[in-house]
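lol ok so funny story. i was supposed to be doing the assay writeup but got distracted and ended up predicting the structure for this chain instead. priorities right. anyway since i did it might as well share w the group, maybe its usefull for someone
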Amino acid sequence: MKAFIDLLAEKGFEKITINDIADRANINRGTVYLHYVDKFDLLDKCIEAYVELLLHYCANSTDTRLDARAFQSLFEYLEENFAIYKLLLSNEGVGFFRNRLYATIAETVTEVVVVKSENSKLSHGVTTHFLTSGLIGVLEWWVHNSIPCSAQEATEQLMFLLEPYTKHLVKQ
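and the output, tada:
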């Protein structure tokens, strides 16, 4: 995966071949095929791994799934691993990373909305996708603009913006 990520940054996905990956990883081409069907499979596994790392890090840092500590951890982790996530959120990630991240965050938000919603006026689908789209949009903006504000500032602004929603979704 490391060889693939390095090549992704250098050449772009379309120009990478299995031979390139094998050469960079200093292994035989057949060894690559033992683990991956093709470069699309490798991209998929890579995306899955980096989404899981991101979410695992955030899950281990908080008890509540929709609070300031979770957001702060998310931004701090992205800052520590800026280069890889900038690459995966760019066009070189071929959009698959964003889609996978969106689906995973939407699943988490849905759990919070369904389990903790006290307001019958909130549509679970609308609320889930509104909150997920907003969060993904802020994450993309923050990464694409090379961290224009601190993790703490981004978290504080998000919490301020989400206050009207979180009072209905999260037990205070």
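The mean pLDDT is 84. The chain is about 75% helix and 0% strand.
back to the writeup now i swear
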